[in-house]
TrEMBL record:
One MF annotation (Gene Ontology) recorded for this entry: RNA 2',3'-cyclic 3'-phosphodiesterase activity
Stored SUPFAM superfamilies: LigT-like
Reactions catalysed according to its record: a 3'-end 2',3'-cyclophospho-ribonucleotide-RNA + H2O = a 3'-end 2'-phospho-ribonucleotide-RNA + H(+)
Active site (record annotation): 40, 125
Keyword Coiled coil attributed: no
Superkingdom assignment: Bacteria
Domain called Phosphoesterase HXTX: residue spans: 12-89, 98-171
Family: Belongs to the 2H phosphoesterase superfamily. ThpR family.
The keyword Hydrolase is assigned to this record: yes
Recorded name of the encoding gene: thpR
Motif HXTX 2 boundaries: 125-128
Span(s) of short sequence motif HXTX 1: 40-43
Protein name: RNA 2',3'-cyclic phosphodiesterase
Keyword terms, alphabetized: Hydrolase
Length: 182
């Protein structure tokens, strides 16, 4: 199983992202768009795991103790070349210190199981699309100013997600772990 740990994006924030994507998608030749039900903030990519080890992973995630947090959309950006970005993403604002603490807590909980944290700095975001079309007109950077901003949600749980390649929606929640009330 190919797994990762994430915060799901719900409510008005997910709705606003979905509406913006629906409006802009015909103008933006990205090869892969994320299904609205798959919007999330990745906390840690785990990779392949044998099903026999799922119990110990679930137990480790149950031990993550971080308070729930308020998050909101905050515009967006791209990764990769400005004319043909690899990724289009939505930015996050709100309780970012708590979000960083949650990321560290998940990494700390999974490291004894052999999951290695990424070396690059953690950058919380919501991926919307990948792989801008080769040979297409340059990505219209002015659209970034129109990305949703302000819609929020309470992040009250982390989820263990399984990737189902070539399906849409692509991610399946196989575990949910509540965050603490402040």
């Amino acid at each position: 199983m190919r797994l990762f740990v994430a915060l799901p994006v719900r409510g008005a924030a997910a709705d606003e992202l979905s509406e913006w994507v629906h409006t802009q998608r015909p103008r933006l030749p990205f090869r892969k768009w994320v299904h609205a039900q798959d919007y999330h903030i990745t906390l840690q990519f785990l990779g392949e795991l044998e099903e026999a080890r799922l119990g110990e992973l679930r137990h480790a995630l149950e031990g993550v103790r971080v308070n729930e947090m308020s998050l909101r959309l905050n515009g967006g950006g791209t990764f990769g070349p400005s004319v043909a970005p690899r990724v289009l993403w939505s930015d996050i604002a709100g309780d970012l210190a708590e979000l960083q603490e949650l990321h560290r807590g998940v990494v700390h909980a999974t490291q004894p199981l052999g999951f290695i944290p990424e070396e690059r700095r953690y950058t919380a975001h919501i991926t919307l699309a990948r792989s801008y079309g080769e040979g297409a007109a340059p990505f219209p950077r002015e659209l970034l100013a129109e990305m949703p901003s302000g819609a929020g949600w309470t992040a009250d749980r982390i989820v263990l997600m399984r990737t189902r390649m070539h399906e849409s929606p692509m991610y399946e929640i196989i575990g949910e772990y509540g965050l603490q009330k402040p």
